Amino acid sequence: MLNTKKLGGSKSMQSFTSQYAIYIVLVLLVIGITIYNPSFLSIDSLRNILIQSSTRAIIALGVAFILITAGTDLSAGRIVGLTAVVSASMLQTATYANRFFPDLPQLQVIVPILLAILVGLICGLLNGLVVAKLNVPPFIATLGTMVVVYGINSMYFDMDPNNSQPIGGLRKDFTKIGSGSIGEGQYSIPYIVLIAIFVAFIVWVIFNKTKLGKNMYAIGGNVQAAKVSGINVAKYLIYIYMIAGALYGLAGVLEASRTGGATNNYGNMYELDAIAACVVGGVSTTGGIGTVPGVMVGVLIFTIINYGLTFIGISPYWQLIVKGLIIVAAVAFDMRKYAAKK
Amino acid sequence: MAQSEYILEMNGISKEFPGVKALDDVTLKVRPGTVHALMGENGAGKSTLMKCLYGIYSPDAGEILLDGQKAQIQNSKDALNYGISMIHQELHPVPFRNVMENIWLGRFPTVGVGPIQFIDHKKMHKDTEDLFKQLDIDLEPETIVGKLSVSKVQSIEIAKAVSFQSKIIIMDEPTSSLTSVEVEHLFRIIRDLKQRGVSIIYISHKMEEILQICDEVTIMRDGQKIGSWPASELTTDLIISKMVGRDLTQRFPDRENVPGDVLLEVKGITSLLPKSFKDISFELRKGEILGVGGLVGAQRTELIEALFGLRGLSTGHIKIHGKEVKIKTPEDAIKHGMALLTEERRATGIIPVLPVHENASIANLSRYRKLLFFLDGRKKRKEADVMIEKLRTKTPTSNTLIMNLSGGNQQKVLLARWLLTEPEILLLDEPTRGIDVGAKFEIYTIIKDLAKQGKSIIMISSEMPELIGMSDRIMVMSEGRLTGILDGDAASEEEIMRLAAQH
User: Are residues A232 and B403, on separate chains, in Cβ contact within 8 Å?
Assistant: First the structure.
């Protein structure tokens, strides 16, 4: 959406700032924290920020699909929780005392992973069906799914013999995915970061190079026009919710792998962080607008706030206040940009 | 100070937006108790001028005199205090509240002591009734506004303007969605307002109306004032030539298309909805333009939307190329070579936040599919660009967001969208609504060219001259029924009206 217009001097400066506002915020944030504590600028910080951003980014990309169709997804966090528990429950070491399935043979790592992603996809399918076929507003549909999924997850988690014990003792070949890296020491590249980058690339391709992507923007931009143009809106909405669900599933797996465990409270409120990151990253809450680079920067901004402010010793309560202000400011700014065009 | 000859004088108004000079030294003088038409093509600066008057924009230069006194209008509240009201083309009432609450919104009468005030519903009810009596409006103050027709909502707006004791009422395209009976009622109200010394600035594209109701006409072009004339000195052709800046020798292109074999046969189709169209049968030939005339409520839009699979049919058959087809969704319709340009360009046509080229290609994505999932982006963009260019769409680049284009150019992009699907049958619902005269002629030319190339066209229009000037045959509907099919050459406005009002 760059270079939409050739304009004169001051206006182009203005449109430059509004075009790149989030990138400017990101740079200012880094500069501010660095001035406070120069040791922030280090390879370690960078790696930590990237690792912490990875699962958030995957969830945010899933949510972005939904937001661009002018919907919203409150169930993302709970789906992450469910899939984290599902994958962890099948990937404990054989010798671990409190196994979820005491008699489960050693599965290929990929099997529980795919199963968890499938669970996410089915949750997405459920969202999609309710939104597209029953015409329930996404806010309500996904609110329902959020609660139902948490219920199912808690029930599963409470099964004998686990009885709501945190799931631990995960297999090394599984936790390696979330905590291992290529190479060693300072310049190693964590797998999880590579996975997130790969997912971002795939999503970028879907957004920009596929019919589904184009239809997604059209549905969000004007659903009536999309219908008249021959787009099967219900079908595409269902696909989109399914893709988002699968991404939450992957994120759940990575959360379990990264932390080496899972409980039924995993993923709680992650959807809010994801929505916030999307919105700060320029995804329009009214639909039809949003880019992958924008979402990624939105995610990074929130991770940097978390990590950076903790790094310079600012209380987590202050961090919440800063986060909240940034969300509102970002949307207010976006609205102003839109209003100016009228 | 002597009483001024004019109730309103806008002198030397200029307004510049980045990249455009929207108003250039424009003067507008309105006498008390008159209807003053403001005319010009879309983009001529009429709306900008009115927004300057109503305080939505502040002009870069110039002054506004009300009754000879200089006025400072910073916002629409100031405008209302100066006695200026505006009735927008698109009305925005509060749909879930009732009539009186909409009228007195923001200034409800109250009773109470000191800071403790309650809404005085009784007084509000009575004031509303008085107001309606004055204006001869037949409405219950307690009716929920969302249930009312556009014309009723409009009369509420007018009543609201009168309740502000307005001396000047701006009406922006007030008749664009009214039936002729409702237009008559509006004109009665306008004449009544004139009698009370209220001046009306009347923006419209409809020449016949202007000549009927207005006293003076000011014409603008490209942000400049062309001149003001008494309406009695003007004719439709004169107005058009002044608006467009050239003589329009003809309003419609020549008929060069030759209708061929029957392409589409519609037999006895009836809507699923009880009050919609019933038992409609007609044929459409290759290369033919079939006009569809009728009044508001004739169910013409419902008919063609049903043909396109957007609405359900209970009975009837549709044949294309002699073969019976079932069309349940727009997807089916497109597969059978149909295209639909909807009446509501904003609501169901454009996707405002997407670039022009994306808007053009959205109905045609299947053709650019490669390797299962992917799209051939380059080909898609190129074909869209070529079509946009071919229709001579004015846009800075094809990457510009479509919401930044004028109505006429948006319409061309939507036409491009459908032409890219290479349809055989084009369903056009009021294709020139809200489009200025110059662009209209271009749209007409495009439609005639398409017919000449052998495309079959069904065109709904509420403008009689357009129906007669464009159609090979005219099918007239009344209250959901087909009342007659006329030959385009032989049809007269009177005959169409007679058929349209049959039921």
Answer: no
Residue written as token pair 């009885």: A163
pTM to 2 decimal places = 0.79
> Which DSSP helix (H) or strand (E) runs through B112?
strand B110-113
* Complex-level ipTM: 0.82
Whole-angstrom distance, CA of residue B397 vs CA of residue B483: 46
Q: What is the largest CA-CA distance in chain A?
A: 72
- DSSP letters for B267-314: EEEEESSTTS--SEEEEEETT-EEEEEE-TTS-HHHHHHHHTTSS-EE
> Which residues lie across from B267 on neighbouring strands?
B317
Task: Please name the amino acid found at residue A234.
Answer: A
Beta pairing, strands B262-271 & B280-285: antiparallel
Q: How many CB atoms lie within 10 A of CB A324?
A: 11
Answer whether B443's CB lies under 8 Å from B451's CB. no
Beta bridge partners of B427: B340, B458
Top pLDDT among B467 and B205 is at B467
Two tokens, residue B217:
């006409």
Number of residues in chain A? 342
Please answer whether residues B475 and B485 qualify as being in contact, where contact means their C-beta atoms are separated by less than 8 angstroms: yes
Note whether B397 contacts A: Cβ–Cβ < 8 A. Answer: yes
Q: Write out pLDDT tens, residues B245-295.
A: 755 556 788 888 889 999 999 999 999 988 899 999 999 999 999 999 987
Residues from chain A contacting residue B401 (CB–CB below 8 Å): 4
B372 touches chain A (CB under 8 A): no
Q: What does B227-251 look like in DSSP terms, one character per residue?
A: EEEEGGG--HHHHHHHHHTS--S-S
Q: Who's near B81: CB < 8 A, 6+ residues apart?
A: none
Neighbour count for residue B377 (Cβ, 10 Å): 14
